[in-house]
Design a protein that fits this description.
Mean pLDDT: 72
Structural class: mainly alpha
Order of helices and strands: HHHHH
Radius of gyration: 14 Å
């Protein structure tokens, strides 16, 4: 439900509230529900997409990004990168994202 709320709010041009809501879903500890885990992953995907969605970055025909094995660190880097980008710090957002990519 929280993921759906965040997505609707984001699509209704309330981007900051949507991003914060995705962050809350993504940062919660893992639950036993498969449905909850899907919402968590989708929230992380949306946060990463925001970090990578920049017209200044040329399209690259390389293999998709592969994250390191430490998923807890990856989650932190992705959320931090999204937050930095949301607050206008594009260079450090990219640097944080690079920390969790092989």
């Amino acid at each position: 439900v929280k993921y759906l709320f965040a997505t609707v709010v984001f699509e209704k041009s309330r981007k900051e509230i949507g991003i914060r809501s995705w962050y809350k879903v993504a940062s919660l500890s893992k639950g036993s529900s498969n449905k909850w885990n899907k919402s968590r992953i989708r929230s992380l995907v949306n946060l990463v997409a925001l970090c990578l969605d920049d017209a200044g970055i040329p399209f690259c025909k390389r293999a998709p990004l592969v994250l390191y094995e430490n998923t807890e660190l990856d989650d932190v880097c992705l959320v931090l990168s999204s937050w930095l980008r949301d607050h206008g710090d594009i260079m450090n957002a990219r640097h944080a994202l690079r920390c969790c990519v092989k």
